Amino acid sequence: MALKCGIVGLPNVGKSTLFNALSNNKAEAANFPFCTIEPNVGVISVPDERLNILSDLVHPQKVIPTSFEFVDIAGLVKGASKGEGLGNQFLANIREVDAIAHVVRCFENDNIIHVDGKVDPVADKEIIDAELQLKDLESVEKKIAKVERTAKSGDPKAKKEYQTLQMFQQALQYGKNARTVKTDAEERKAIEDLQLLTDKPVIYVANVDENSIHTGNQFVNKLANLTKDEGAELVVVCAAIEAQIAELETREDRDAFLAEYGLKESGLHKLIRAAYHLLNLITYFTAGEKEVRAWTIHRGWKAPQAAGVIHSDFEKGFIRAEVIKIADYQKYKTEVATREAGKLAVEGKDYVVEDGDVMHFRFNV
After folding, report:
1. HSE on the CB side for 165, CA within 13 Å?
2. Number of helices (H) and strands (E), helices first, in the chain?
């Protein structure tokens, strides 16, 4: 699965600095708005210690982690929904992502100009929310105009769709994001084709100074209180620290650097873990002499769906899956020994894949 996360935020909040730290691509980080004109795309290998475990057991020719695509999208200003600044381009790019990482400035620094002259994470969030809500409201009202006549003629399906669209219209008019509207699966079909910007899952990334990385600060607290009812994730990072980590060549150097700051993991790890939790994703593995590889799927997928991520033929011709729990693989060391111990399970089409499963698929096309 090619997952895409858009990094957004007002100018000068640390978006491009964070992106540079996450990616081998180097977006220009400058102290003025719109230093990122075109979306910069970086493909990040997802860190997973379980790959190292399997590699030590299997000794493959190569190890392939799963990946996550980050898109650094141009900064947003008031009036973006009307085309101000880089608004139209920003809004078009954000429609294409699976989730949004909304970077919010939670640090003070007189040398870095704030676009509104003061640090206020609540106001910053509300500016971007308002612009996205206005664009969503425009989309919803256009569709309402299309279905209204059919709905008023008595068509029950159109009537239901019209009522659902009105729910979203009212929420957006009151300054609420589409993701906060409570609907069932059937009702949600009314907006699926609109790709509403404020309906996308969001991770709020509180960008703090070095002194606040452990405890947070007043800005982080304000942001946490504001977003607690959204069903969103909140991650505290220091983009400046992440930028320094990115310059280090070896894992040992990075671990030593983190230890100096009393950190157990980088902001990258926290951000990816938050994204997986938010999007309800898990990882399974394939392991053989040629390669050990991680695969990302949605939690709750059954074995044939999981096989289809490797190749569509695996899903079409699925016969069975041979499944080993990674803890059992560690204990018995080899696939043969695991099988002999009765710890290799043969599963059919209804098997729900679990996080960390090591799988081998049998299929016939």
Report:
1. 25
2. 14, 12
Q: State how far the Cα of 160 lies from the Cα of 106, in Å rounded to an integer.
A: 43
- Bridge partners, 40 (sequence order): 72
Q: 3-state DSSP call for residue 113? A: coil
Q: What is the C-alpha R_g of the chain?
A: 23
pLDDT category, 79, cuts 50, 70, 90?
Answer: low
| Helical H segments across the chain, by residue range | 15-22, 49-58, 87-94, 121-152, 156-173, 185-188, 218-227, 239-246, 251-260, 267-279, 303-310, 312-316, 326-332, 335-340
Strand 318-324 and strand 358-363: the pairing is antiparallel
Cβ-in-10-Å burial (0-12, 13-18, 19+) of 40 comes to buried
Measured distance CA(238)–CA(248) in Å, rounded: 16
Q: Average pLDDT in the 321-350 region?
A: 96
Amino acid identity at 98:
D
Tell which wins on pLDDT, 346 or 269: 346
Q: Do 355 and 276 contact (CB within 8 A), yes or no?
A: no
